[in-house]
């Protein structure tokens, strides 16, 4: 089978493979610099804080970014109880009209909360509109 049809195509296959080894990475590098991050799937830079809200990051309940209205109680949960590196600070209220405001710059927010039969109902308002929020009791977060 030494001179049969597969041998005639061997050089074509080799040229195809070498062409792809060189050209495809170059096309990828060029596309990443020439096209927007949304179209290439490259990670976007983190959202920066502005005068109207904080940027991307993790903010604890005692951060200046939160503004609490109403009677809120504070509970500190020791790190050895949660397995975290430092103590966790939680705020809770029994006041029906209590609220907290958190101005942020970005596309989404994740809020850690607790669920249980002794907990109440809460509403998420984003940009002045009540938004449907998928309340995930397993992960304990609000996802918009």
Q: What kind of oligomer do you see?
A: single chain
Order of strands across the widest beta sheet?
1-4
What is the number of beta strands? 8
Overall number of structural domains: 2
Which ranges are low-confidence, i.e. pLDDT below 50, for 5 or more consecutive residues? 135-144
Question: How many individual helices?
Answer: 3
Rg over C-alpha atoms, rounded to the nearest angstrom: 27 Å
Q: What does the average pLDDT come to?
A: 80
- Major β-sheet profile: 2 strands, antiparallel
Shape: elongated
Q: How much β-strand is present in the residues? A: 15-25%
Structural class: alpha+beta
Termini gap: 64 Å
Please bin the fraction of helical residues: 25-40%
N-to-C SSE string, H for helix and E for strand? HHEEHEEEEEE
State the gist of this model.
With 144 residues, the chain is an alpha+beta fold. It has helices spanning 5-34, 37-40, 79-82, and strands spanning 66-69, 73-77, 88-92, 99-102, 125-126, 129-130, 134-136, 141-143. Strand 5 and strand 6 (129-130) form a beta hairpin.
